[in-house]
Amino acid sequence: MRSELNRYSPGEKLPSSRALVERFRASPVTVSRAIAQLAAEGLVVTRPGSGAFRAQPRGAAPLAGDTSWQEVSLSGDGGPEAVPRSVDASGVLATLAAPATGVVEFNGGYLHSSLQPERALAAALARAGRRPGAWGRPPTDGLTELRAWFAHEIGPALTAADVLITAGGQSALVTALRALAPAGAPVLVESPTYPGMLAVARAAGLRPVPVPADTDGVRPELLAAAFRATGARVFVCQPLFQNPTGAVLARARRSEVVRIAREAGAFVIEDDFARRLVHDDAGPLPLPPPLAADDPDGVVVHVCSLTKVTSPSLRVGALAARGPVLERLRAIQVVDSFFVPRPIQEAALELVGTPTWSRHLRSLPTELRPRRTAMTAALRSELPALAVPHIPAGGGSLWVGLPGTGAGADESAMVSAALRAGVALAPGRPYFCAEPPAPHVRLSYAAVAGTAEIAQGVRRLRAAWEGALDAPEATLGG
């Protein structure tokens, strides 16, 4: 249809939809979408009840303006105490950018579509749209029923009154950091940690300070030392299946972390993003409860979300807190976004209230473990030079160390060579807020179709590795 538009004069009527259906042997839905696409491109104008017409030709493109003045404005420091206003989103975009067709998506941060409950989501959204009042204005704190559901999931000590509904976990982190720390203040973070949180902190004018962690989570003695040295009043952590390492905060350290923060007069922001991504070989013991579940003093501000376990587009999360801080969280969220759209909240309620939700949560552990096992085995077989120091029992990725001690050239060469070979990786550098101790990459096994694609991706990775090593300027492996 686009190629044939020149047959018609501007303003001339195009054939009817029925005629186009017969001519192209396409369904009415396909024809309607094609016309809508042409209208969106400005090539066609539709008039209800009259049909579609060729649009008037566009005028000459406007002259390009001079935007160079913006560099001066954006770079103005506003004085010696001002906080830099530039924002580096590269670490976030590395996991959000969709690779080209045919590229194995080892860089993804969400479940592959085959792991998402797409039919249940579609049905929930359809039912939600028919609920009485579904398109009206929701309470600013969120639907009471949804807040009560999140409170029950977090722990018995919380009620709906302690919960705010947010537009996903990232939005909750933005609100929490803005509420708890003034611009220019230090904020303690695990090292390495989630790049999206580091980007949020820097965008808010905060100074992330790394606290080393091991396979048992953050080290309490170093956390206490960091509080003393910096005077920080916020510590951000992921106690369960930490991103990117997959570590779980040891039971003996959990109360220590809360105690240390309480003695420092500080808050702990608990990002509990991966609780429902546990694998079926995690062991017979139940998962440790959230830190917020046993926190009578309101030290912990809890962040959780439905997004990671469902779909990147179901952006529904929760902020839970106790005490005066809740009012500040509420005020900032209202100022920033008013509220989360009611149809999305209603759809979330519909989803979690059906038997399909329980079946989905039961199926994920059995789907994720084989993918993790396949990737681990393939790396050990095809690329034994790479280090996989920790095999997580939950989450959706592996944290992989590259040989050598140089952090920059090795890592960037690996990522570039892999992309040329048809594999997208997440570089490790953005996961550190200070100098990384060694080069790393993060490989997602949850973002791919299955074990066959994992095997193919690792074979491509080996070819990329060998090709980079053979190159004269190669630095991989030293």
Question: In a nutshell, what does this entry contain?
Answer:
By secondary structure, the protein is an alpha/beta fold. The chain has helices spanning 17-24, 28-40, 69-75, 90-96, 118-129, 144-154, 169-180, 195-203, 220-230, 251-263, 325-337, 342-352, 355-382, 409-420, 451-470, and strands at residues 44-47, 51-54, 104-105, 163-166, 186-191, 207-214, 217-218, 234-237, 267-271, 300-305, 317-320, 397-401, 423-424, 426-427, 440-444. The protein has 15 helices and 15 strands.
Walk me through the structure.
- By secondary structure, the protein is of the alpha/beta class.
- About 40% of the residues lie in helices and about 15% in strands.
- It is built from 15 helices and 15 strands.
- It has helices at about 15-25, 30-40, 70-75, 90-95, 120-130, 145-155, 170-180, 195-205, 220-230, 250-265, 325-335, 340-350, 355-380, 410-420, 450-470; strands spanning about 45, 50-55, 105, 165, 185-190, 205-215, 215-220, 235, 265-270, 300-305, 315-320, 395-400, 425, 425, 440-445.
- The strands form 4 sheets. Strands 4-11-10-9-8-5-6-7 form an 8-stranded mixed sheet, sandwiched between helices.
- Helix 5 (about 120-130) crosses helix 12 and helix 13 runs parallel beside helix 15 (about 450-470).
- The longest helix has 28 residues, at about 355-380.
- It is globular and about 75 Å long.
- The model is unreliable at about 475-478 (pLDDT under 50).
